[in-house]
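User: Hey, my collaborator sent me this sequence without any context and asked if I could get a structure. I don't really work with proteins. Can you help?
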Amino acid sequence: MDGRKAAQKFDIAVAGGSFAGLALVRGLVQALGPGLRIAIVDRASRSGAMPSDNRAFAVWAGAKAVLQSLGVWEAIASEAQPMTSIEISDSALSDGIRPTRLTYDALTAEGEPAAYMVPAAVLSASLFNSIKDEPSVTWIAPAEAESLTLGEHTAEVALRDGSLISASLVVAADGKTSKLRDAAGIKTLRRSYDQTGIVTTVKFSEPHNGVAIQHFLPGGPFAILPLKGDRACITWSAEREEAARVTALDDDGFLAELDLRIGGRFGPIALDGPRQSWPLDIIIPRELVAHRFALIGDAAHGVHPSAGQGVNLALRDAAALIEWIADEARLGLDI
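Assistant: No problem. I've predicted the 3D structure and written it out in structure-token form, which is a compact way to encode the shape of the chain:
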């Protein structure tokens, strides 16, 4: 005997309990029932809460349809702010007038909102709550997947604490810096944008009426994304030195920088949440699958937040993989 711990056995092991991983598991449970044994390995405790995540996401029509099919949109809808129109401007910060270059209605052909702004915490909690009591789902958290061995008939994941998991299929939904992607030998294309992303929430004194605004400033895009209660999520991409200067300011100084960029559009503003920041880069894997292994979410494509497509791509990844696995499983084939 080699003294190794015996591996816990599952049909599917998912590394990462954020949006992509949770959506995938929800869909698989919904499609295939309790007979499929699923493990979720996540660095955070099993709570579904994301109190430190101040982001909000533009959920476009396709991603909304995925959430509806997963049965979780109803839990999200009351906190989802419809986006009524989008304005684009391009100017220097010092310009006295910031002209709008493009405006278009954010509506579908049927007159429905084409996008909704959804707080990250609401999206995460709704997906988590949809599977938290499923007997076929085993939560292994807090834990971290460290390495991966891909065999002919099973894949084996080693966790940081030395325990092992084996599964017919391992799915990496563990973010842009996925350890399992590297362990699977999948190469990536990477490039830094030399920018920092800054996110916070503000409260307006005047109605925003669902208008989303994207200012393309010389240092990077500055987005004003409407939330319920005449609040807005500010998503700001700035050159690193400028971002370091701004994030080091006290609340009054930081608010003054925001107000300068918002330009008094919605009256006096107040901070309504903490600020967060992280370096911006792009990561594109050369492959999305290996033998008994697949990538979804940010592990499959780390993109710039400017277009607001990260979570939409993640949900579409999950939907595509759910459909493929379900079709194979229903035919009795090897998933």
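In plain terms: The chain is about 25% helix and 35% strand. You can pass these tokens on to your collaborator as they are.
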